[in-house]
């Protein structure tokens, strides 16, 4: 594969992970924090950037760990444990950095910041990287795209929910009901891109 075609392939993986293969709205991973933290745009943006950072860097570290530790020793079945340890360490780093430089955002995120550790979207991205046998560059492109796609979805949801605060919603649909309906409609919109680009 020439350099130009390889770069085009990486761009396709990146944009496919953002839109057509969105890890949240097409794969339905990371729904817990998506539904819980999408009440305010500012908080959603902060958490979104944290997820992008964690997902991009942990998928790189997971790739090295899988290729140079697990595979050579034939212990690939330990990937779940090792990947979770790497993710937890990075989340701890992010938590300390946000607490130090943005106390307001740290207070707004509350318990949901440590919950990035158990955000199945981040672990899922690393497992997709293994299943699809990505090289390092493909893994980074996929991790970055998946993080951006997750952030795009949660920020869009937060914007809609902020607008709905002033809307007249039937009593039976207020709260989780309307939120799940919006999430379903957003998922339909993103799934509509399926087939345009493929991250496989």
How is the secondary structure organized here?
Blueprint: H1 3-20, H2 31-36, H3 41-70, H4 79-101, H5 103-109, H6 120-131, H7 136-164, H8 176-191
Helix pairs in contact: 1-7, 3-4, 3-6, 3-7, 4-5, 4-6, 6-7, 7-8
Question: Could you walk me through the main structural features you see in this protein, from its secondary elements to its overall organization?
Answer:
The protein has 200 residues and is an all-alpha fold. The chain has one domain (3-191). It contains 8 helices and no strands. The longest helix has 30 residues, at 41-70. The protein is globular. It starts with a helix and ends in a 9-residue tail after the last helix. 36% of the residues are buried. The model has no long low-confidence stretch (mean pLDDT 87).
Question: Would you summarize the structure shown here?
Answer:
This protein has helices at residues 3-20, 31-36, 41-70, 79-101, 103-109, 120-131, 136-164, 176-191. By secondary structure, the protein is mostly helical.
Number of helices: 8
| Class from secondary-structure proportions | mainly alpha
Helix content: over 70%
Order of helices and strands: HHHHHHHH
* Strand coverage percent: under 5%
